[in-house]
Design brief:
Strand 3 (75-79), helix 3 and strand 4 form a beta-alpha-beta unit. The protein is of the alpha/beta class. The radius of gyration is 18 Å and the shape is globular. The chain has an eight-stranded parallel barrel, surrounded by five helices. It contains 13 helices and eight strands. The termini are far apart.
């Protein structure tokens, strides 16, 4: 079984100028940049990828293009979650055919399904392929909230190997770590990555890894080496960038900043609104501070 620990960029999807098609050449450049940076792999077609603003055909195309560009480099995790189970099953089969190493899915949302209904769904979806399966726990967006015991119960299925945990409750995360010591827990909030690692996370999956892979890798390695102050300085630096992105909208900011460094991502699909001129100027200043080597924390860590 593929080892799923480590650091994964949650991949955004580049579109052409009018947003009607995936920009395949740009996608290839982004995939190559991320895998060439030293990250362990990619999480494809998730929230950052605007999956729920894409058709089934586009989601399949995205999975195919990424697998082709990656060319067996790095670990690929396909997000296949959808409110319609049949869509999830089709995407799971397609990901397996394209050579993905694992699949992942948010729970079916909108209707308030019981824990038993979700357990049945996840068991069924995990059995669609022979690939290891990661639950995607993102209660702030999915609206589905589980207790620690409920989440541990979902993990009883041996094919469900772990969780992409994008949840701010670190107390619950630590409790889950104690209950499921044999499962993979990947931290999903970039701004608390170090805290997640300190509480037992096996790695992380994040959208800003696309912008700052070296910073995230250094943070991870300093943590492993027990150099807490250096890791904390890099987390604070990463959070300065993240704070500015949150102020204008994380996904539009991510695409704008990637475009600014030479990867023309296009804009997010409607109903996301375009960034205002003021927002763009704010992000220009943010890039100068956090993406050009001018941040003092980075210089101090590098010299230490």
């Amino acid at each position: 079984m593929t080892k799923l620990t480590g650091l994964y960029a949650a991949l955004p999807t580049p579109f052409n100028q009018d947003g009607s098609e995936i920009a395949s050449d740009v996608l290839g450049a982004l995939v190559a940049r991320n895998l060439g940076s030293g990250l362990d792999g990619l999480y494809v077609g998730g929230s950052t990828g605007e999956a729920f603003l894409m058709s089934l055909g586009e989601r399949k195309e995205l999975l195919k293009l990424v697998a082709k560009t990656a060319d067996s480099c790095g670990t690929l995790i396909a997000h296949v979650g959808d409110p319609n189970p049949e869509v999830s099953a089709q995407l799971a089969h397609y990901a397996a055919d394209q050579g993905y190493h694992a699949i992942s899915a948010v729970p079916p949302f909108y209707y308030r399904y019981s824990i038993d209904e979700i357990l049945t769904h996840y068991s069924w979806l995990a059995d669609q392929t022979d690939l290891p399966f990661l639950i995607y726990n993102f209660p702030d967006l999915s609206g589905v909230r589980w207790s620690v015991n409920e989440l541990a119960r979902l993990l009883d299925n041996p094919q469900i190997v772990g969780v992409k945990n994008t949840c701010g409750d670190l107390f619950a995360f630590e409790a889950l770590r104690r209950k499921v010591s044999n499962k993979v827990l990947l931290h999903g909030f970039d701004e608390t990555l170090l805290a997640g690692l300190a509480l037992g996370a096996d790695g992380g999956i994040g959208s800003t890894y696309n912008l700052q892979p070296e910073r995230i890798l250094s943070l991870f390695n300093f943590h492993k080496a027990g150099q807490v102050e250096k890791a904390a300085a890099l987390q604070a630096e990463a959070n300065g960038l993240i704070e500015e992105m949150i102020a204008v909208g994380v996904l539009p900011a991510l695409k704008y900043l990637l475009t600014r460094i030479g990867i023309p991502m296009g804009t997010c699909r409607k109903p996301f609104a375009p960034l205002s001129n003021a927002d763009q100027k704010r992000l220009d200043a943010t890039a100068e501070m956090y993406l050009s080597g001018k941040n003092e924390a980075a210089q101090k860590v590098a010299k230490a």
